[in-house]
User: Which sequence fits this backbone?
């Protein structure tokens, strides 16, 4: 079930790094149903420019309070308007949308690899997985500004990497992940981030033979499978049909899609 | 004084609709995408995605670019092909309580005819909408809909391959839209829908390359509405067959403009992406307008902006 909340109320918004915001929205129907990896499609203006909604992964939910949490970077007109929203103001939201991570594991070891704003859905996932599994997270960004902060991080062990060395390991998050794989044997891997990072993670997962789910980013219009604007390349050419990031994804088994 | 229950029903080429609000092809899937937001039975008619004889993969990514109050798309008629549509997608629309119109497309006259013929045997299909904006591969890729002769040729051929009502969707990318309308009317069209998207493009100044994978795409959304209203006006004054108006409709006010310009019904496309309840909000808004303005039948407003007899009372 998808809900349309034309006037979801902003509960709070804070800057967590340069141009990066954490937004709490009252959306009980969506918070109730949302699974890690799913997203919402948001319109933060009634004006006609920007016209379309912005798809954002859900970073966390508080089901008791009916809240959903989004962690996003300002990249254009839509997110700029979003970051100006004050508590008590409203935005127009559809959700929860898409297929989330398959995370019904118990007593397993899971590895999460996130880069940039791709970390957002993994924060939600990490918190859920950690209830009954052992989880290790690898989060990377260009600099310390791009990393998640205490306060909205789930309580999971985590290693950080930054390209400029302002926090954690100086270098790529995939280097940290590769080192970990030399010693550990996880049962399941989850990744979200830039394409270059995903390609590396896929390569490593295949090398060690560990199942991997990836969450893909795409430009979308409808977010509900109608417009076919976010079609992804299927890895198997002989199958009938196509993949839509909004409906068949945004989470896929790595072998389903051709990155 | 207000009219308690205005009659919103309209008829397009024998297709009876409870209100004048339809979906625009290619923006509503096969009717499943918005089912959580409203019941299909609330619509006047559902127009489903363009169908070709064979499955089509569509164009390369990126396929969407947002522009000022508009959307450029180059989806490229991605669809699973007529046989899969008949087997997999149409049966679930049988009990939806709404007339189903299938948009058809092709690269040759034979393509259109074979899809039309095949769909004519499906009881769920109440009408065909012919997308004549496709390139004609036998004529060097020039769109069927860009010349009156080639448009008439494909419409006449489809007409001879189906007993279903034939609605012809006109391309706005022509010099004289009224001439195109007259040509397809003479060729046997039962109704005309317009406008399809306006050809456009956008360039990324950072990469210095076109933003769309296909370079050019079709512009839709509020940005195109004045062009669409003008074309509906010109076409409705020229032909006797009913006109379905579309192009940038987001609100009931927008829809009413098209009706006043001469549209019997309207279709919503990009508006659905903006507001998933757009079609229903428009039905309710039209009803309210009729109540407030004492319009007993919506058909009385059709073309009222130019029909003198209707203007006399204003």
Assistant:
């Amino acid at each position: 079930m998808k809900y349309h909340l034309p006037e979801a109320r902003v509960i709070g918004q804070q800057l967590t790094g340069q141009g990066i915001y954490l937004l709490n929205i009252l959306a009980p129907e969506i918070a109730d149903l949302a699974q890690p990896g799913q997203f919402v499609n948001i319109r933060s203006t009634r004006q006609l420019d920007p016209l379309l909604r912005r798809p954002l992964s859900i970073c966390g939910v508080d089901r008791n309070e009916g809240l959903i949490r989004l962690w996003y970077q300002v990249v254009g007109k839509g997110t700029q308007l979003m970051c100006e929203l004050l508590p008590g103001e409203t935005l127009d939201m559809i959700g929860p949308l898409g297929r989330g991570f398959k995370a019904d594991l118990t007593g397993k070891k899971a590895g999460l690899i996130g880069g940039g704003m791709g970390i957002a859905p993994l924060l939600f996932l990490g918190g859920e997985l950690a209830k009954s599994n052992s989880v290790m997270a690898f989060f990377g960004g260009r600099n310390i500004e791009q990393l998640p902060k205490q306060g909205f991080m789930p309580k999971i062990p985590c290693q950080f990497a930054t390209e400029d060395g302002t926090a954690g390991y100086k270098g790529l998050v995939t280097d940290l992940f590769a080192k970990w794989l030399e010693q550990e044997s996880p049962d399941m891997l989850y990744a979200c981030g830039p394409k270059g990072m995903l390609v590396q993670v896929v390569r490593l997962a295949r090398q060690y033979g560990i199942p991997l789910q990836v969450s893909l980013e795409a430009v979308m219009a409808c977010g509900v499978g109608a417009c076919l604007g976010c079609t992804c390349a299927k890895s198997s050419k002989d199958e009938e049909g196509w993949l839509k990031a909004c409906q068949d994804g945004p989470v896929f088994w790595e072998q389903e899609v051709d990155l | 004084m207000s009219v308690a229950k205005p009659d919103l029903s309209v008829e397009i080429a024998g297709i009876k609709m409870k209100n004048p609000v339809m979906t625009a092809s290619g923006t509503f899937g096969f009717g499943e995408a918005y089912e959580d937001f409203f019941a299909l039975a609330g619509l006047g008619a559902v127009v489903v995605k363009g169908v070709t004889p064979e499955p089509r993969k569509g164009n390369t990514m990126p396929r969407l670019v947002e522009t000022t109050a508009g959307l450029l798309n180059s989806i490229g008629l991605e669809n699973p092909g007529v046989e899969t549509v008949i087997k997999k997608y149409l049966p679930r629309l049988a009990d939806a309580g709404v007339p189903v119109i299938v948009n058809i497309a092709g690269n040759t006259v034979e393509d259109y005819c074979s899809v039309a013929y095949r769909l004519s045997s499906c009881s769920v299909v109440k009408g065909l909408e012919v997308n004549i904006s496709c390139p004609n591969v036998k004529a060097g890729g020039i769109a069927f809909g860009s010349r009156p002769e080639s448009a008439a040729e494909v419409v006449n051929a489809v007409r001879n391959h189906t007993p279903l009502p034939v609605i012809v969707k006109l391309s706005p990318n022509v010099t004289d839209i009224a001439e195109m309308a007259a040509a397809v009317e003479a060729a046997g069209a039962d109704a005309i829908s317009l406008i399809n998207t306006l050809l456009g493009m956008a360039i990324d100044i950072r990469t210095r390359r076109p933003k769309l994978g296909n370079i050019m795409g079709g512009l839709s959304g509020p940005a195109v509405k004045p062009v669409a209203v003008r074309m509906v006006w010109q076409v409705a004054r020229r032909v006797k067959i009913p006109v379905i108006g579309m192009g940038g409709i987001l609100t009931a006010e927008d829809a009413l403009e098209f009706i006043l310009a001469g549209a019997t019904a309207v279709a919503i496309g990009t508006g659905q992406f903006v507001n998933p309840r757009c079609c229903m909000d428009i039905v309710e808004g039209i009803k309210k307008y009729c109540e407030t303005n004492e319009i007993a039948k919506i058909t009385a407003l059709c073309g009222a902006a130019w029909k003198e007899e209707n203007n006399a009372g204003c």
Q: What stands out?
A: Helices of chain A lie at 28-33, 77-83, 119-129, 173-183, 195-208.
